[in-house]
Design brief:
By secondary structure, this protein is an alpha+beta fold. The chain is built from 25 helices and 22 strands. The strands form seven sheets. A five-stranded mixed sheet has the order 1-3-2-4-5, sandwiched between helices. A four-stranded mixed sheet has the order 20-19-21-22, sandwiched between helices. A three-stranded antiparallel sheet has the order 8-9-15. A hairpin with a 7-residue loop joins β6 and β7. The longest helix has 20 residues. The chain starts with 12 loop residues before the first helix and ends with a helix. About 50% of the residues are buried.
Length: about 700
């Protein structure tokens, strides 16, 4: 039996991938740092995640190599960290890497002193030096020699780096922002907009759904049609490009080119959640069925392939299959011919741009691979394609459904990419929120049931006895104290579930977790929230983040959560805390507004006229729910709705005590900016008010 290292006892799929390495790996913890102090050795810290392509490459080239392992085992104490399990550790040392090298990425390689202070940083390193990149067999002996010969200098350098890291984490509160920041953000998005292919910037091109969500709010605020056009162009281009899985559905991580054709093939749960939200909101505005269908297909993928038996959601699927990136998703001409009729293959060729030589070329050599990515040219309409094939558009749609089902069944016989089956509270929160929103926007109870089932799992299995969240669950075991993202995104999901179901238990849970979050994470002196809780003292820094990267920052999400909870409950203290977040980060946001697009969406809600609709009724009914549903399917992202049937909920919503049922009929109270209209019974009056005022 092959000797395994300490990682064999871990839960993380990423750490378990390294359990057979000859490297004497430790998980992050006091045991590793105590050993480093005892031996007076530096710590080799490697951070990655299970679906990271270059993490796999570095493992194969370096960590599975006996010579590299010998150097590491003799001169270092080596620690492996799953960045998705410990985003707090990753955040700190990624900041170090960017500070030292000017860039970052995964795998992340940091060399630390035994007291966790960094003095060297980089990303991917091959086994041997070449092409201007240092290799492990040369680099590690140099670092070990420097540690032995000049340890005092190394320690001084590490101290300076750590002090600088702490300094950049000190965010000085600024003046309040005004509405001009929205215009600045819009103009900067416009200047970076790709008018040919949609999206922002060139290659690689990331979806950035929260950027699109902000632009939809900007369109609603200003009526600026260009904002809506940019969003629609981008959503259509992504949906039709190779970044979208046309056979099994769902979005890949990002596009390596500017045209959305060649993706990096991993699929992340959070991308499915945030992108589906952007498509749902675009559907609310435009009523375009293409956006609704895209969201439905994303949910089909998630509920089929990313859902645990208990109803919670897994984290990601790898880009690689059988050691080759994208292999699971690519098609050669002969294989298509073995699955499809000649006419069906012709349709695939015309619609998805595939041919015998293959449309997928090796980037390094330009050589044809004979393999094809399914990708539809966004500049050619479905009607034009149908005409080229001599078909009616409805006929083409039906034929494509049959073709895609055949391709899906064939693809299911292949070796699937690795699925990272750990369940993370924060990413589950995003997906639950998306499903809850879909349930009311698409009027589909399937999505509500899925959201409820997942949230029930989180609240039952991923909380401590004192009500605090845990970050990770896998193989029946939950662990790792909840981080700020967990609270931010689970509270977001609870609010969405309450707005969909009006079950008071979700509102009560959201308020309870908010109280814990404020106690454990808030900077009570300056406002804003730290990434780690007050009791977490094992790290060299306590960071605070506002940048809206691959997903919205926790502070941006919390800002919006606090405003919504304040307006649902009538508690002004919650909105005041949101104002503190605004002031804390105003200076950063003013310097580069597009980097804080979800923060701006929350700011839009704060600066827009508040709209609260309170519905009082003596009994629940399908007719009542249908009436509320018609309100909810309109695009009013800054609106909150309260349904009160049982007076016991009034302890959570005391401002509604005086709002009573009139004439024994369901009664709608519409309030704007702390002023309520005369109560009405008919739905058209409510919808008319919303059309006129918001």
């Amino acid at each position: 039996m092959k000797l395994q290292n300490r990682l064999a006892q871990e839960k993380s799929p990423y750490l378990l991938q390294h359990k057979n390495n000859p490297v004497d790996w430790y998980p992050w913890g006091e045991e590793a740092f105590r050993r480093a102090r005892e031996l007076n050795r530096p710590v080799f810290l490697s951070i990655g995640y299970s679906t990271c392509h270059w993490c796999h490459v570095m493992e194969k080239e370096s960590f599975e190599d006996s010579k590299v392992a010998e150097i590491m085992n003799q001169s270092f104490v080596s620690i492996k960290v799953d960045r998705e399990e410990r985003p707090d550790i990753d955040h700190i040392y990624m900041s170090v890497c960017q500070m030292i090298t000017g860039h970052g990425g995964w795998p992340l390689t940091i060399i630390l002193t035994p007291d966790k202070k960094p003095f060297f940083a980089g990303t991917y390193f091959p086994r041997d030096s070449g092409f201007g990149r240092p290799g492990m067999t040369q680099l590690l002996p140099q670092i070990a020699n420097t540690w032995s010969a000049k340890q005092k200098d190394v320690l001084n350098s590490a101290e300076e780096i750590t002090n600088h890291l702490k300094a950049i984490n000190r965010i000085i509160p600024g003046e309040d922002l005004d509405e001009s920041v929205f215009e600045t953000a819009f103009q900067q998005f416009t200047s970076h907009y790709d008018t040919r292919y949609g999206g922002f910037g060139q290659r690689p091109k990331f979806p950035g759904p929260h950027n699109l969500i902000f632009l939809l709010r900007y369109y609603r605020r200003t009526g600026q049609l260009q904002a809506l056009n940019m969003v629609e162009h981008t959503l259509k281009a992504m949906r039709r490009g190779g970044i979208y899985d046309h056979v099994g559905y769902g979005f890949h991580r990002y596009s390596t080119d500017e045209s959305w054709f060649l993706p990096h093939f991993e699929k992340m749960l959070y991308d499915q959640a945030m992108l589906s939200i952007s498509y749902l909101e675009a559907y609310q505005i435009t009523s375009s069925e293409e956006y609704a269908q895209t969201a439905r297909e994303v949910f089909d993928y998630v509920l089929r392939d990313m859902c645990s038996p208990e109803g919670a959601f897994y984290s990601a699927e790898d880009a690689d299959s059988q050691g080759e990136e994208g292999l699971f998703y690519l098609w050669d001409w002969d294989e298509l011919g073995s699955v499809l009729s000649d006419h069906e293959r012709e349709i695939v060729s015309v619609v998805y741009g595939v041919w015998e030589a293959g449309n997928f070329r090796e980037e390094a050599t330009g050589r044809d691979t004979g393999l094809n990515i399914l990708s539809h040219d966004p500049h050619v309409s479905w009607g034009e394609l149908a005409e080229k094939l001599g078909l009616e558009q409805e006929e083409l749609d039906e034929k494509l459904k049959t073709i895609n089902q055949k391709l899906f069944q064939k693809r299911e016989t292949r070796v699937r990419p690795l699925r990272d089956d750990k369940i993370l509270s924060d990413w589950n929160g995003l997906m639950i929120a998306a499903l809850a929103l879909a349930g009311r926007v698409l009027d589909d109870p399937r999505y509500i049931r899925a959201a409820v089932q997942a949230m029930d799992f989180i609240l039952k299995h991923m909380k401590t006895s004192d009500g605090r969240l845990l970050h990770r669950h896998r193989n029946g075991e939950s662990g790792i104290h909840g981080l700020l993202d967990d609270y931010a995104f689970i509270i977001y999901a609870l609010i969405e579930l309450y707005q969909t179901s009006f079950d008071a238990k979700y509102l009560e849970e959201a308020l309870s977790l908010t109280d814990i979050m404020v106690t454990d994470f808030q900077d009570r002196e300056n406002g804003g929230f730290f990434l780690t809780g007050e009791s977490e003292t094992e790290l060299i820094s306590r960071p605070m983040e506002i940048y809206d990267g691959a997903i919205p920052s926790a502070n941006s999400m919390i800002k919006m959560n606090l405003i919504r909870l304040a307006r649902i409950t009538g508690n002004p203290d919650l909105e005041a805390k949101a104002g503190e977040i605004t002031k804390r980060f105003a200076g950063s946001v003013r310097q580069n507004p597009p980097s804080y697009s979800h923060f701006l969406s929350g700011l839009d809600m704060m600066m827009s006229p508040s709209v609260e609709i309170v519905v009082r009724a003596e009994t629940d009914s399908d007719d009542l729910r249908n009436a509320i549903g018609k309100i909810q399917r309109t695009y009013h992202p800054n609106m909150v709705i309260v349904l009160i049937i049982d007076n016991s909920v009034l302890n959570l919503i005391p401002f509604a005590q005086s709002m009573i049922v009139k004439n024994g009929q369901p009664t709608f109270y519409v309030c704007q900016d702390h002023s309520c209209q005369e109560p009405v019974h008919d739905l058209d009056s409510v919808l008319g008010f919303l059309r006129k005022k918001t």
